[in-house]
């Protein structure tokens, strides 16, 4: 009985940790007249971390509010890769 309860608690804590893990995507975007290109990082909600298409569906309207057109989502990554990638993103290192 104790083993079952401990296993259930461990599983619940593990799932809670995964649900709160941060997820990011790096992307390429453009503006026209004059042509400007941008590489940036956007923080994603957990629901958008499952696939590149889910990330794109979330990121496209967020990026367009600033007058940019999303070209592509490069990749999805977690907090462990954030600092190395944010150095490449320059001023647009995190969009929410």
Explain what this protein looks like in three dimensions.
- The chain has 96 residues and is an alpha+beta fold.
- The chain has one domain: Roll (Ubiquitin-like (UB roll)).
- The longest helix has 18 residues.
- The N terminus is likely disordered.
- It has a three-stranded antiparallel β-sheet, sandwiched between helices.
- It is globular.
Q: Concise description?
A:
With 96 residues, the protein is of the alpha+beta class.
Q: What is the radius of gyration? A: 17 Å
Question: Could you report the average pLDDT, rounded to the nearest whole number?
Answer: 79
> Remind me, CATH topology?
Ubiquitin-like (UB roll)
Biggest sheet: strand arrangement: 2-1-3
What is the strand content?
25-35%
Helix and strand pattern: HEEHEH
Helix content: 40-55%
Number of helices: 3
Enumerate the spans where pLDDT stays under 50 for 5 or more consecutive residues: 1-19
Could you tell me the number of beta strands?
3
Q: Can you tell me the overall shape?
A: globular
Q: Give the biggest sheet.
A: 3 strands, antiparallel
Distance between the termini: 45 Å
Structural class from helices and strands? alpha+beta
The CATH architecture classification is: Roll
Number of domains: 1
The CATH class label is Alpha Beta
Signal peptide: 1-21
Keywords: Signal
